[in-house]
Amino acid sequence: MLSIKNLHASVEGKEILKGINLEIKAGEVHAIMGPNGSGKSTLSQVLAGNDAFEVTSGEVTLNGENLLEKETEERAREGVFLAFQYPVEIPGVSNLQFMRTAVNAMRHHKGEPEMNAAEFMKLAREVSKQVDLDPAFLKRGVNEGFSGGEKKRNEIMQALLLQPKLAILDETDSGLDIDALKVVSDGVNALRAQDRAILMVTHYQRLLDHIVPDYVHVLADGKIVKSGGRELALELEERGYGWLGIKEDATEASSAN
Amino acid sequence: MKPAPTLLPTAFLHPAGQALPEPLLALRKQRGAALVDMPLPTRKTENWKYSSKHLKLTDEMAISLPIDGKAGSALAVPGYKVVFINGVMIPEASEYPDLNNILIQRFGDLSDAEASELAGQLDSTLDKNTVQLAGLNSARFEDGLVIRLKAGAVLDQPLFIIHEITAGASGSAFPRIFVDAGTNSQITLVEEYISSGQDAVMVNTVTEFNLAEGANVTSIRLCMDGENVQHVGATGVRQQRSSRFESHCVGFGGPLRRHDLQVSLEGEGAECKLNGVVVTQGTQHYDNHTNIEHVAAHCDSEETYRNIATDKSHAVFNGRIHIHQDAQKSNANMNNNNLLLSTGAEIDTKPELEIYADDVKCAHGATIGQLDEESLFYLVSRGIGRREANVLLTMAFINELVAQIPLEVVRDTVQVRLNHFFDQSFQGI
Ligand SMILES: Nc1ncnc2c1ncn2[C@@H]1O[C@H](COP(=O)(O)OP(=O)(O)O)[C@@H](O)[C@H]1O
Ligand SMILES: [Mg+2]
Questions:
Q1: pTM
Q2: Does B400 contact chain A (CB < 8 Å)?
Q3: pLDDT digits (tens, 9 = 90+) for B200-236
Q4: Which residue of A has its CA nearest to B393?
Q5: Total domains in the fold of chain A
Q6: Among candidate residues B323, B346, B370, the one where a domain is terminated
Q7: Cα-to-centroid distance, A78 and ligand 1 (Å)
Q8: Which of A63, A201, B112, B224 makes a 20 to 30 Å CA pair with B303?
């Protein structure tokens, strides 16, 4: 489904991704782990089409089509979904209006009729229950004043509504307490499907206790330095990143120079 | 040597011959005399600094517009209706109740005694030194509307005053409104300025509100004049004890749009809430000057104005709050937030606070920003189109103010105009 070949990307002239290679097939769940600052969010944002990041070389295809030449909204309509590490707060746009506009943009793209306000409200209430968000959150501004955990659940709610082909989850587990982690992982597990690929970006192994990945990759300094099965995650949990020759925190290391 | 100032063309000093009661004719004449040799504002005139170059007061503009007694009847509103065409009230097109505790009358129908009372009140709510051009209206109004609510009177439906310009010629219209809201009375007044003609017309309008103790007035002002209309308007408000005045001004730009809103809180416990939304595009110009006088103690004022400017347009907000020495425990809050949708647009915002009392709460804030790139990315990453994402974020900037307008029909009218604006300003996105 997703094929990334020798992807290089930079931000403000600084190279962050230094040749990423990754193949993900439909139905698979891949986890990308790595220390802070290794480029996990950069990879996620590049796949979603954030033009703050410049792709300098390499190629990315989704179901054989060149993803990089498409606009962000086209990518989304063709099934790319990114759960943001830091979801944006948008006061003045209600969560409900936002989600309905998004769902209808998708439906429009597929040639399906738009959902009216009442139909969508019904759907949104159901899905909000699934991620244990009080429907009152639908009336608030997008992510406005949400706690960290509420923002993450709101991201999963959007994934469930939009039913993407490729879901990229950027640290959807961070900042969650045990109960919220369970809710979020149930949501992610509900997304698992034969025709869907999931790319989970995480800093910690604990999410992988709930969502068992098919493959685990270790990203360090903009490159995948090791790939394996889920046992690799357990090994990282026990031994840290040191045995792979990786500094624990690339952010600290780079901010020192 | 200093160049001689440009004076108001004398042609402006000859009002047209509508039949008016003698006291009003006398008032007009007196106000006209005060305008002889009046220098026109220049960019050195502080409160006209940004707008003087857009003010075109030529002999041609001084011509009275033709009276069109047939137009306007088709305008449908959910409430009472008074129609002004080209600055003159048209009774045939108006529909309002004949009540004994609420008098709604055109100037031309007043008895001499009533006209004399009114003449004593006109201009009493405005500071003639800062709203120079209101004097022009006082010298030139051809007809107007007076509304008097007796103590406890409540107008059961909103009163819509539709000011339509249909003129097929240049010239000026001088509509005039005076509202005298008695003790504990209530009224919602909507003023809508529209044009069906395309001509270069000046609309020079003055609306005054006199609120007695406990009166509750909601004023909605939609400035949607045609694209060639210069609109120079003033609203004056005087408030006595425990009265409440709420204003919602929504305006779209033109060659010149100027609105002066002056509120004087003269009785303890009076409060005002002033909301404003301005949208400009192309080379349009919009200038809002507000002034709140906290004269009495224990009064609250809450002001929120937002401007959206795109292309090469220019929006100005000047908000003055004057807290007098005796106005202890005043509570004044003023905010002006501005959204620039293009780098060629300009917004000037200036708060002016003059505080002479020591025990007051007075806060103000002004911001100028653009649409947030991160928010845009978040929206489009969900499949929402760029244009729609721009619209959502622009609406987000003013939603709160539009939502506070208490009449659905007005909110809808505003939304239609906004959609039109979005179609133009986000086309090709
Ligand atoms: N917008 C940006 N501007 C400048 N540097 C950035 C930006 N985004 C990320 N970086 C830098 O890129 C590197 C990788 O960051 P990121 O992809 O967020 O890492 P991770 O998600 O793995 O913690 C870091 O050194 C970070 O400081
Ligand atoms: Mg990250």
A1: 0.91
A2: yes
A3: 999 999 999 999 999 999 999 999 999 999 999 999 9
A4: A93
A5: 1
A6: B370
A7: 26
A8: B224
